[in-house]
């Protein structure tokens, strides 16, 4: 090699981006910064999300040895499999506490999911530093773009952990039949916790089909056998109407879903998503790493289809957030080589910093930039929650709460599931007249609503219009707080 050629090679090597420990440490610290608020919030007794009270009441039914699916359609429905509630009921025997136990499980599940993202990047690229960056990018994306689910009592993060574990086991040896059987078992176990993350089994099945149709059939047969066993357990321990409740219809409005859910979740991540799509397009022909591209494609497809269901929220795109973290981790691992034609551009030296700085966009969109102010509000919010609970305890029963967590801590029985009952009424699976008659008769000592006006159309997903009209006519406000309004009947029942 001539002296000029050697100098050119040295200059080209020096111009290529390098991941350094300092860069990784700085990016990881910046991502961890956004976990402070949701992690701190999980230690306070206040409602993080609507599902919390619903999950607790459902778990309590198992603790009291009651079936979750005793009828097809009722005022308290369970549209999740039984496993997450069974696990929390078991943990309740050790902790004797519902809410904080479930929140700890949620936090640990997020950390485990991010760790598994890093493990997957290590498996697919061999780069330790890129693996660490991928794990912390995943943590930052969830803490900024899905912060309401971080530390919330909800089973999806737990299910996601086992889906990622299944993906890691699958990549360990895609040709071993026993390994594929274990992968299928983990997929079914994860789906038995929360069943809506179809992108993971679809990505595995599609990748396996491209490798060997015989092994794809073996994986499908194993998954079907395990799913049949899971179905039998749900029917035996949960009740005869498991499938009826799991598959109960809901109002479908795709334009609304695209506007309210898809844009709300994906638009703040537009730059990372765009880069992930570019990486996926390149990796689609890589037999070893195309699984990440398949995961992104299926997660966008499934998420968009599910987004049209009324009541669907940010969690429908959790698979997309995972796929973005994986694809960008693979991109960062490739920057040190010659896999990309842009490696000589100086700006790519700062790619990790740019990707992690983008977290400011979803953080700003979700009102998380002023961490000091948010943290300062937690004590006041808990104080109001405690006062509202004390108020309910002094009022006559029965009581009806939109915030089910309030009624739970007030010691009230579980009478009405606002969201699921409303969707069953909207799809004509449930007759509203018996419950409407109780409202018209002023049978409830207190009714708590999250909105200040009972006829506010934003409540349509939790209270049918006829219910809200009855509340407006037969009840009047007795207490108003920044989060809720409490109504008492105009006359005693």
How confident overall, as mean pLDDT? 90
SSE order, as H and E?
HHHHHHHHHHHHHHHHHHHEHHHEHEE
What is the number of domains?
Answer: 2
Q: What percent of residues are in strands?
A: under 5%
Give the CA-based shape: globular
What percent of the residues sit in helical stretches (DSSP H or I)? 55-70%
How is the quaternary structure best described? single chain
Topology:
Layout: H1 3-15, H2 21-33, H3 36-41, H4 51-63, H5 83-95, H6 99-125, H7 128-145, H8 156-172, H9 177-191, H10 199-211, H11 213-238, H12 242-246, H13 254-266, H14 270-283, H15 290-307, H16 318-334, H17 351-357, H18 360-365, H19 371-393, E1 399-401, H20 404-409, H21 418-426, H22 433-440, E2 446-449, H23 465-474, E3 475-480, E4 485-489
Parallel strand pairs: 1-2
Antiparallel strand pairs: 2-4, 3-4
How is this structure best described in words?
The chain has a four-stranded mixed sheet with strand order 1-2-4-3. Strand 3 (475-480) and strand 4 (485-489) form a beta hairpin. Helices cover 63% and strands 4% of the residues. It is mainly alpha-helical and 493 residues long. Helix 4 (51-63) crosses helix 5, helix 6 (99-125) packs parallel to helix 8 and helix 10 runs antiparallel to helix 15 (290-307). The termini are far apart. It has helices at residues 3-15, 21-33, 36-41, 51-63, 83-95, 99-125, 128-145, 156-172, 177-191, 199-211, 213-238, 242-246, 254-266, 270-283, 290-307, 318-334, 351-357, 360-365, 371-393, 404-409, 418-426, 433-440, 465-474; strands at residues 399-401, 446-449, 475-480, 485-489. It has two domains: 19-365, no CATH class; 372-489, no CATH class.
